[in-house]
Design brief:
Blueprint: E1 8-11, E2 14-25, E3 30-36, E4 45-49, E5 53-55
Antiparallel strand pairs: 1-2, 1-5, 2-3, 3-4
């Protein structure tokens, strides 16, 4: 699956949380994400393998 910047995804190891795609590095097979929705103090970014991501099931109350 091709992920796009701004897309909401879930990480296989934590399917209870939603993350926003910040950047995709196809060469390194990595994606930089941050927890969504953002917290007041910000949400730190971290990298995760593209194989560990899946498209998030969007909650109707959750907006970009």
């Amino acid at each position: 699956m091709n992920f796009q910047q701004g897309q909401l995804v879930q990480v296989a190891s934590n399917q209870d949380s939603t993350y926003q795609v910040l950047s995709v590095d196809d060469t390194a097979d990595l994606c930089w994400v941050r927890r969504w929705p953002l917290s007041r103090k910000g949400s730190p970014a971290f990298s995760v393998s593209l194989q560990q991501l899946k498209e998030a099931e969007i909650n109707p109350g959750l907006r970009l």
